[in-house]
């Protein structure tokens, strides 16, 4: 689909005000409705929601009907407020906490990605959630899991090791289960930035950019970007745009949609006084990238400070406070959503591409240069600071005239030529 035909989507990752994601244990539909009212009042059009996998599938052979019914009730409540819903299936990992069923750990330790009993149960779980929502018009589709790649490699303290070919086979199988449950919806997968930045990581850029209905990127500047470049640096304010352009380098379809599915303003890396500016700058820069499906901010509401043991930055990421008052970042995204409502998204083409060499493009063994402080990252950031609007092209395609022409690229620059 050409970008000119797209209307941008703006939404939030839904963090319940009462009990955080533990709210599934004491599900209160009236509280959910009040939360969704406050999200809809910002002018947003969708939410991404997170069932906790151990609560929904506490035994390999048991998917709790009541839990699935509550997910349907949440989706229907969202529809009443004009909100579409994307559902993340395998949680997995959220805000520094792991949520894995007991039948995968300790005495029942089995690899999440390769054990046939585990993968069969995952497949049925994803199919069941998708099928429960398949007839809901406001159901966008499934995301396989939230950054589940973090379980596959270090720095996780107890990783389930897997090869990149096994990771790809697992992703294709899980997405096929989602499609079986709800045919024709937007089903995708989403990784944290080790997929783009970590040498040898089994979840790869090619998988992110070629498998599923869209490419998802999660942009967090506490990964060294803000520490190195400051809260107002070009690299910091354009980090999301950088990831979008980095992902596009692996696309086989030049108009494949990209979803900025997670992005937030983490304190103290982004001071509270600068959160609104960072929000506007980040989204404006992302909107300067073609084929953007939409932006889903992390997160809807602040975490209740009575809850213990979260990293400090996690408590204050909301667009709204824990008592549903609009914060400056929330007001900023509301202004942006209003400005773009009903407007087709068609930014000017990027004509200059920075050449990226990661070795084999499929396995991408040499990704570290793409990370903050890496030669490629810093060259891209330098060009962006100079107003160049750089795209990214893989080294094997840097002299492919047909590829460059299809993307509107007229100039290629190598990192060693920058600065």
Compact summary:
The chain has 419 residues and is of the alpha/beta class. It has helices spanning 29-40, 53-56, 65-80, 116-133, 164-181, 194-197, 205-210, 225-229, 234-237, 239-248, 275-286, 328-340, 375-385, 401-406; strands at 9-13, 46-49, 84-90, 93-94, 97-98, 139-146, 188-190, 215-219, 258-263, 292-297, 352-356, 391-394, 411-413. Helix 3 (65-80) runs parallel beside helix 4 and helix 11 (275-286) packs parallel to helix 12 (328-340).
Percent strand: 5-15%
Distance between the termini: 37 Å
What is the helix content? 25-40%
How many strands in all?
A: 13
SSE-based structural type: alpha/beta
| Total tally of structural domains | 2
CATH class of the largest domain: Alpha Beta
Our count of helices gives: 14
C-alpha Rg (nearest Å): 20 Å
Assembly classification:
single chain
Helix-strand topology string? EHEHHEEEHEHEHHEHHHEHEHEHEHE
Unreliable sequence segments? none
Tell me the CATH superfamily of the largest domain: Glycosidases
């Amino acid at each position: 689909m050409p970008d000119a035909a797209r209307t941008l989507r703006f939404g939030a990752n839904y963090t319940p005000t009462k009990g955080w994601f533990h709210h599934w244990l004491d599900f209160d539909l009236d509280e959910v409705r009040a939360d969704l009212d406050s999200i809809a009042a910002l002018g947003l059009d969708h939410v991404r929601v997170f069932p906790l996998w151990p609560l929904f599938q506490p035994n390999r052979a048991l998917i709790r009907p009541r839990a699935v019914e509550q997910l349907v009730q949440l989706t229907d409540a969202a529809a009443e407020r004009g909100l579409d819903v994307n559902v993340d299936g395998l949680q997995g990992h959220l805000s520094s906490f792991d949520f894995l069923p007991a039948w995968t750990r300790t005495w029942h330790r089995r690899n999440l990605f390769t054990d046939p009993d585990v993968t069969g149960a995952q497949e049925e779980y994803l199919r069941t959630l998708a099928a429960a929502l398949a007839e809901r018009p406001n159901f966008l589709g499934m995301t396989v899991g939230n950054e589940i790649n973090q379980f596959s490699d270090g720095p996780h303290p107890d990783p389930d090791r897997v090869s990149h070919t096994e990771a790809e086979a697992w992703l294709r199988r899980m997405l096929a289960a989602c499609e079986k449950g709800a045919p024709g919806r937007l089903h995708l997968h989403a990784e944290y930035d080790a997929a783009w930045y970590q040498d040898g990581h089994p979840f790869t850029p090619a998988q992110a950019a070629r498998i599923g209905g869209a490419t998802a990127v999660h942009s967090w500047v506490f990964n060294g970007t803000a520490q190195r470049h400051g809260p107002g640096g070009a690299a910091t304010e354009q980090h999301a745009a950088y990831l979008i352009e980095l992902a596009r380098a692996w696309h086989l379809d030049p108009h494949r949609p990209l979803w900025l599915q997670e992005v937030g303003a983490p304190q103290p890396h982004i001071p509270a006084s600068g959160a609104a500016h960072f929000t506007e700058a980040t989204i404006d820069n992302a909107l300067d990238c073609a084929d953007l499906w939409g932006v889903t901010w992390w997160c809807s509401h602040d975490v209740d400070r009575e809850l213990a043991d979260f990293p400090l930055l996690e408590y204050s990421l909301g667009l709204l406070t824990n008592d549903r008052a609009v914060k400056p970042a929330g007001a900023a995204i509301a202004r942006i959503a209003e400005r773009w409502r009903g407007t087709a998204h068609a930014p000017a083409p990027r004509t200059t591409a920075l050449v990226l060499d990661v070795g084999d493009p499929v396995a991408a063994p040499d990704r570290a240069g793409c990370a903050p402080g890496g030669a490629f990252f810093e060259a891209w950031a330098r060009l962006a600071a100079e107003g160049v609007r750089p795209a990214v092209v893989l080294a094997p395609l840097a002299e492919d005239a047909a590829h460059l022409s299809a993307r509107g690229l007229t100039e290629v620059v190598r990192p060693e030529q920058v600065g």
